[in-house]
């Protein structure tokens, strides 16, 4: 039962992350919805089974981030650099939202041990986080926000200089720092959640600022 609930929640989470990435970077994805669903199902298996291995359980999210970068690059033919940027945006946003949801539950009196030990609470957390991301996607679509700098051609040449270098450094640094925090605090989930969530919440406005700057630079 725990397997079914976790996988169901994970699939919904991955679908919302895909939706956020493609909405934020103005990608059309209706023709690829079945591929997105299949990838979400497969990644939910990766998420579940890697968490069963004590040595890598806390690093499961970061293993999946690497796989998502490869998936977007190979299957969706997004240039490798932009796959990192897009997945970084989706990963940071998704983690920040879920972290804030869990911390909100904790602040309302639900202990972290109860959250981790109750399959229904885990599912509710996953569904609520995904729903918030979908709401953000809807807002982006209605307001016509989003960025235009990701090219449609997989052969696009990318120079890792200027704003490109800053965006890449920001994503790599935040993901690497969070990965190190996960390893060092693997026995202290509450501390890991607080520090990693704070890191990503700080990263989001910086990412948005430099993305807007890159959009402006590319348009000029």
TrEMBL record:
Source organism superkingdom: Bacteria
Membrane-spanning ranges: 6-25, 32-53, 59-76, 88-108, 120-141, 162-186, 192-212
Record's keyword annotation contains Membrane: yes
Keywords: Membrane, Transmembrane, Transmembrane helix
Top-level taxonomy: Bacteria, Bacillati, Bacillota, Bacilli, Bacillales
Origin species: Paenibacillus nasutitermitis
The protein's name in its UniProt record: Uncharacterized protein
């Amino acid at each position: 039962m725990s397997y079914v609930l976790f996988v169901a929640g994970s699939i919904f989470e991955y679908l919302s992350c895909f939706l956020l990435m493609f909405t934020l970077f103005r990608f059309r994805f209706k023709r690829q919805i079945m591929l997105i669903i299949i990838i979400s199902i497969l990644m939910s298996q990766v998420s579940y089974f890697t968490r069963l291995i004590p040595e890598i359980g806390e690093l499961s999210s970061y293993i999946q981030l690497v796989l998502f970068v490869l998936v977007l690059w190979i299957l969706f033919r997004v240039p490798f650099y932009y796959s990192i940027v897009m997945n970084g945006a989706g990963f940071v946003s998704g983690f920040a939202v879920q972290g804030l949801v869990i911390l909100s539950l904790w602040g309302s009196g639900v202990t972290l041990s109860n959250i981790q030990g109750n399959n229904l609470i885990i599912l509710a957390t996953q569904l609520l986080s995904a729903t918030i991301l979908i709401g953000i996607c809807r807002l982006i679509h209605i307001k016509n926000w989003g960025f235009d700098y990701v090219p449609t051609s997989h052969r696009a040449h990318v120079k890792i200089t200027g704003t490109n270098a800053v965006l890449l450094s920001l994503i790599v640094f935040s993901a690497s720092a969070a990965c190190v925090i996960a390893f060092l605090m693997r026995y202290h989930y509450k501390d890991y959640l607080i520090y990693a969530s704070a890191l990503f919440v700080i990263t989001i406005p910086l990412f948005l600022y430099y993305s807007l700057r890159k959009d402006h630079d590319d348009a000029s």
